[in-house]
Amino acid sequence: MYEIVDEYKHSESSDKKNKIFKSLCSAIWTSDNKRRTYIKTIKFVIRKDLLNTEIGQIFNVWSEVEYMGYKAMSKETDWCSLIRQKINNLYTRYFDKDVILNKDYLYLLNTPRRLYYQWLDGVEMDPNELTRIIDDSIDNSIRLKTQYQKQKMELSWNNYKKMIEEFLQKILNNCKLIEDYEDKTRLNSIYDFMNEDNFYVSYFCKSLEGEMLKWQKKYYDIRDHKKYKRCITCGKLFEMKTFNQKRCIICQKKYNRINKTEKQKKYRVEKLKS
Predict the structure, then answer these.
(1) What DSSP character marks residue 234?
(2) CA–CA separation, 220 vs 239, rounded Å?
(3) Which of 39, 12, 55, 9 is nearest to 181 (CA)?
(4) Helical packing angle, 2-10 and 14-29, nearest 10°
(5) Do the strands 228-230 and 37-43 form a parallel or antiparallel pair, or are they unpaired?
(6) Where do runs of H (alpha helix) occur along the chain?
(7) With 80 as the cut, is the pLDDT of residue 261 above it?
(8) Burial state string for 199-228 with b = 16 or more CB within 10 A and e = fewer than 16
């Protein structure tokens, strides 16, 4: 990685720079570290002596709860694999609606397993109440998953690759050679545990994260230096006009219209009763 950056920065010809950049992109996209998703399972095994009990049978129905996961880390340590892993992770986090791994969502999915071990520890449980709690948790997890899916943006993998190449071009152009950094003292301390390649890999990964955040703001038409929030209805980001604003303008208008209609219906019902 150090040699690529060094050669690029010292190249005077735009054609040569372009060839180096294309070579860098080719190395990343042909990396064996592909983006992979797979089904994960929250499992627990019912004790044999409890399997035929009423509560044991309830837990047995929920002894395997599936959700979609993804390969989040690379075993390889070469620069191609590490940068490609960052690119893969960013797509999963911002665009892949099948992969939802928020803590509150996983907590709800883990309810049957959590309650089972509480039962083993001696917590008394009523079968009907247990069924209700588990059913409510799974229903809430589905609603929560839908909510988090709304927060993801729309972009195909092919278009994402084009966007990432634009990011990489900008990052490579802005990247300084290590010897050009003014704070040599700070860099010397970094070298105690980081070589040149790791330094540039870290720079590229952090820069990709930053560029993605900037792109996300453009996607939602958020102006620079404006405070923004996520709409509780549609999941989109919006510029805040007031401190307690919870919805974007479009969703707020719909909410106001529905709320007004409901109030009118309630008023008519109360008037008829009187």
Answers:
(1) T
(2) 9
(3) 9
(4) 160
(5) unpaired
(6) 2-10, 14-29, 54-61, 79-94, 103-109, 111-120, 127-150, 157-174, 184-190, 196-219, 249-273
(7) no
(8) bbbebbbebbeebbeeeebeeeebeeeeee
**CA atoms of 5 and 177, how far apart (whole Å):** 7
Query: What pLDDT digit, counting tens, does each position of 181-199 carry?
Result: 655 555 554 445 457 888 9
- Average pLDDT, stretch 43-64? 97
Q: Rounded to 5 degrees, what are φ and ψ at 70?
A: -155, 160
Residue 140, token pair as written in the block:
């809430």
**DSSP tag of 238:** E
Closest CA to 233 of 268, 215, 257, 203: 257
Higher pLDDT, 243 or 227: 227
DSSP H or E run through 230: strand 228-230
Mean pLDDT of 24-50: 97
CB 233 within 8 A of CB 249: no
- Domain coordinates of the chain in residue numbers? 31-150, 237-273
Per-residue pLDDT tens digits for 78-104:
999 999 999 999 999 999 999 999 999
Confidence of residue 271 (pLDDT cuts 50, 70, 90): low
Question: What is the rounded distance in angstroms from the CA atom of residue 52 to the CA atom of residue 127?
Answer: 13
Can you give the pTM of this predicted structure? 0.86
208 within 8 A of 167, measured Cβ to Cβ: yes
Residues 6+ apart with CB under 8 A from 254: 233
